[in-house]
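Final report, closing paragraph on structural work. Over the funding period we assembled a curated collection of sequence-structure pairs, and we close with a single example.
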Amino acid sequence: MCGSISGGFFDCRRCSGKQHHIQWKRKGGGHLNPLKLSERLAAVASFIEKGSVLADIGSDHAYLPCHLVRTGTIERAVAGEVAKGPYESAVANVAKEGLSESITVRLANGIAAIRKEDEVDAVTIAGMGGTLIADILEEGKAHLQGVKRIVAQPNIHAIAIRSWCLANGWTIVDERILKEDHKIYEILVLEKGQAAFSEIELLVGPFLLAEKSPVFIEKWVRELEEWQRVLRAIESAGHSEEAEKRKIQLKEKIEMVGKVLSN
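Its predicted structure, as stored:
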């Protein structure tokens, strides 16, 4: 799956949660600006409460914090970037918008961009794989002490973020699923609290499961078809202990999601 285009970014970091040093690049023209976000980023922005102090991790051009300051939702933000190229783009864009007094751009690894004196209480992490987002949260959780809300937008594997919540005293208070440019995205809103998810809720999301929107159905029909394709390929490839384990896992997921789609 590495190297696929998602939400306007060429995301080369999706497959490994440890590749924090690898830069992702914008694809195509600059259709975004601080006052007009993509639908995906606008949805992320909608979950930031007025008056928050934001840290946007993996901020790229700092479009999201610029938008939130420009629209009066927030007064201050930190835009964090791990790679020099995106960091320089963010610095340039913040300066171009005249927001250097309101938005601090830092070259740092993940949530290490947040300092105690920033008094950050909201964090956004968007446009990465769910496993990478969960790893960033885990590695940076010492910097989350004053944070009240995390808005995560994984491109894939949202289950990794839900699993992180279970292990770290956070819970999901809202979710959204949307489709943009033929890609389907999930947004998870986290706050401190004890999470308790069933196996199917962990996989597909408790709020999204309750809503069962047309986009949700489309996503899981796609996933089900892909799992069935992989299962057929494994079954025709011969037997091994590893293959048998994989078949059992796939059959369990196919059964779970099949029940959701049939109800």
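The longest strand covers residues 170-180. Residues 192 and 259 are 31 Å apart (CA to CA). We thank the funder for supporting this effort.
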